[in-house]
Fold:
Amino acid sequence: MSQAAEKSDQATALEKNMKEIVALCKRRGFIYQASEIYGGINGFWDYGPLGTELKNNLRDWWWRKMVLCPPIGPDGTPVDIVGLDSAIIQNPKVWVASGHVGGFADPMVDCKETKLRYRADHLIVFTPKDGQGSSIAVQEGDDFEESKARRFKKFAGKKTDADFEKRALSDIAFSEFANIIGPDASKPGTLTEPKAFNLLFETKIGAVASDDNVAYLRGETAQGIFVNYKNVLDSSRVKVPFGIAQIGKAFRNEVNPRNFIFRSREFEQMEMEFFCHPKDAKMWFDFWKEERQKFWQEIGLTKGNLLMREHGHNELVFYSKGTFDIEYKFPFTDPGFGELEGIAYRTDYDLTQHQTHSGTKLEYIDQTTNERFLPHVIEPAAGLTRGVLALLCEAFTPDPSRPSGVYLNFHPRLAPKKAAILPLTAKDGHPEIATKLYLELREEFPVDLDIKQNIGKRYARQDEIGTPYCLTIDNDTLKDETITVRHRNSMKQERIGLSNAKEFIRKGLESAAQ
Amino acid sequence: MSQAAEKSDQATALEKNMKEIVALCKRRGFIYQASEIYGGINGFWDYGPLGTELKNNLRDWWWRKMVLCPPIGPDGTPVDIVGLDSAIIQNPKVWVASGHVGGFADPMVDCKETKLRYRADHLIVFTPKDGQGSSIAVQEGDDFEESKARRFKKFAGKKTDADFEKRALSDIAFSEFANIIGPDASKPGTLTEPKAFNLLFETKIGAVASDDNVAYLRGETAQGIFVNYKNVLDSSRVKVPFGIAQIGKAFRNEVNPRNFIFRSREFEQMEMEFFCHPKDAKMWFDFWKEERQKFWQEIGLTKGNLLMREHGHNELVFYSKGTFDIEYKFPFTDPGFGELEGIAYRTDYDLTQHQTHSGTKLEYIDQTTNERFLPHVIEPAAGLTRGVLALLCEAFTPDPSRPSGVYLNFHPRLAPKKAAILPLTAKDGHPEIATKLYLELREEFPVDLDIKQNIGKRYARQDEIGTPYCLTIDNDTLKDETITVRHRNSMKQERIGLSNAKEFIRKGLESAAQ
Structure:
């Protein structure tokens, strides 16, 4: 097989994997298309019973690691972080100060021929060096090379890159557009002038729907933290350095929502702003880069699927002194990676902006030295919903040897159900023992009780939802008070005492935690 | 003191109480006005470090009682309920089917003289029986009697109720408005015709801001459950009767947000839809009425402050076969009560609406009897943010005998911090022992470590945030490894072994739980 054919085969396999993951998510109640019975709504997703538990487990684990039990800092004492939950709708001035109203926009061009819309900064224009014929615009993305080759052939014979000058559309004056053929067009001159398209969703507040009443759905949870920085300082006992953490929904009116829950219009973030003295910022930046990588590894993302990528100078916003992305190798980015979390050194940009725009002094006064300063900020900002997607992709394990053909290899701590209690038959006293065990175990772990159906089908279901242990009650249980434990990954079975079930699961979770 | 004066005095005391609660919430980091540094935004609130933990505790307790460990049903087997987390933005057809687009509206009238706006159904009109003079409109509410008396005197001499015919403005034809004096107006004829004002916040989705792209922020979490009823049935193992539970934000563009977080524009709900056979609906309605009252009592709301109120026929929506509200005696409703949770028997109205509007069959087929039917629905719908307010009001306990003058008597399960670890001084090895104890305890409970400050001030702070136990490390700790426990409510102190601290708190929480 040629290398290209092999690569294409691999790509198809990966694509299929993603389709299978999406299908499993719907089939087993992890994630549904929002408003599905009404034909859906592009860019919005609903979390089913198991997806909700999985997402809650990731949410609670982050909260535990960031707010309830934050790590030990470089000086050997525990880091101080408090939680916050700010409103989705804030005074619109917040978003003016943050730069989102002015700058949180993508430049878009329309094609008058095809009615398609493109991000201007995603279009690459090839202009013939010999001045013969039109320029050819191609959309950056998965099939860039392929569609470029096709359109080179169609509009310029079999020319190669060397015959063209290559520029971004956003660098080209509109007067030149008349000679550019759009990515899906058949003739030049159909692309409109780029127009900024703001990603903030707008709404109007109060009884009068005038422009004075415009407000925005937050585009990120971070600003809710910055505007409460002073409130938190005044009402709690924190001292610099300290962090404020928040988990919550954010909204972006994406032009092309895609890749399942990876790029959706409504999503959840887990963000922490860490306020420190400017001279210590570099130390804390390094500290959080390490800690955040550990976090994702601890819950089961393998090192080979994680990448720490530093932003290049052209990616970096002007005020940032450095940003690292923790990226994950999703099936749809493979062999590349997609962002899971960003860790940014934001300097004092945000506090300065809000101090200026609000007219409220946000300086910190050190009680010991009497020094006044605006703290610098390190921001680890993770996607909760993207984290859920990474966990699903990581856990998805095809296995032709078992009836389900696949199992979800969740870290037990994240698994929606820690154990399933399965009476072998729905008679002979099995259901009664199972129900009693279920009532005992559910006090400590989320567990499933599934009484009727062929036992093989019930095992298959638990494999597909990633339950680490199946506990089966059978006739022997009546005789000697033992039950069968079936291990998810190995499918191995062993016999344990009914009264030891709780301790068995507890130990299993503890050993997996290390 | 006259009865009236006494009542007025009591009202002032209660009003003062509410002001003190709001002030404490801000001072100690429970709840802040949203966007405060920008002058706020009417009807929106941010939860500070302690408010977030308190709200999370109530959220998790509801989830535990409804999803992870639901109650035992009338037949002796555990009730089956699964969780869900649907998007805030759904296909707009959802809200057409639910009736919110057409009917989720308050009729509003404006006053052309004062520019004030009123809910038409909150205005009462008094028309002189003798036909002499104008009619007088008065706004229903706290000072209704007072303002009525004042305006009777001003516009109609000292006439009494008996001299007037009393009607709701919404029952009066607009042609009669010319003779009505608005509640704050000085002359008749200034009220406009009532106009429906929809409470759903609107936004627009996608790059083109046309009317085709209108969508709504959900006005309740319930509809997200109904539109996923079929998905849940198809992807999980639930059988009728079963419930689907959801916790999340909802938005209502209230004309007059008021009473702190009681009536805000962005709030959180905890709703469960219980699907059952029509013949069993009455039984489940009674069941959930009992269970939900128990829930609120278990977390510390006292019986005297709770009221079960049945909706009258005029309050009941046409499809409901009965609704009960669990009401709480808030300081601003005292001696009356305000809604905390509604338990409604909604029949098959919602599923019928969505079946008709979506064209998707939503019938349930009983596997045993082959009977096909649309399940009936019992809905316990609680306010999470209202629950937080009730917990704060209930816990607020003025006590002039202690330095703080007040303490929050939270049920330990709901208290944001279960214990505070306080080294007596910031030297002599006290902080080291305290930090070690903090690291040990935080693995199991949310605890506070507060090192510096006068111990009395630190106790006062813990009283104000409702921490059940203060653990103090002093010089005796160095000698005999004992610490002082100070109990929040009694302020009594006792000495326990340092190594027994975890077990002591664990037992304290368990005994409080019964």
Summary: Confidence is low (pLDDT under 50) at residues 1-5 of chain B. Residues 105-197 of chain B form one domain. The longest strand of chain B covers residues 266-276. Residues 271 and 381 of chain B are 4 Å apart (CA to CA).
